[in-house]
Amino acid sequence: MIHFISMLLALLLLASCNGRSDSPGYAARQLDLDLPAYQSFSVADSHGGFHGDGLLHMELVFSPEDGATVAESVSSHPSGRWNPFPMDEEMEQFLWGGGAGMAGWPVPEEGWWYLMDRQTDGEGSMFHRYSQNYTFACYDSQTNTLRYLELDT
Fold it and tell me: For the chain, which terminus, N or C, has the lower number of CB atoms within 10 Å?
């Protein structure tokens, strides 16, 4: 019986490792994308502070062939949340003045962007709140790069 419980706990531990928020699979799940193999991956996460505030950001770079697959996936995504670049000036200033700017991301000239407001008690426009909780992603079709972030303030 002890052996069975030990094995069960080991399996639960292994299963929980796959759901980490600092893995490419996490970004794929949050964006509901089936991503091909990437050539490089980087991540940084400053969460864990007061009330879980922080910035999680990831960058996945794909080969040109796999990049075309990602571009097709986001441009025809059934959620309708992906929008083509360029974005309007107010939105660009908001996002690059916030999480995307803190992450040091360049503004893509071509590609697609995604934004989800995760603030549950947010009333009115997210542009005018004192705190921000959102998920933002952009796919740069010139560099075959998918960038993903979660900002919580």
Answer: N
The single-letter code of the amino acid at 16 is S
The length of the chain in residues reads 153
Contact 110, 75 (CB under 8 A): no
Segment among 15-19, 20-24, 110-114, 140-144 with least mean pLDDT? 15-19
Spatial separation of the C-alpha atoms in residues 61 and 140, rounded to whole Å: 10
Quick one: tokens of 96? 């690059």
**Global pTM value:** 0.79
Residues 6+ apart with CB under 8 A from 74: 33, 82, 112, 114, 139
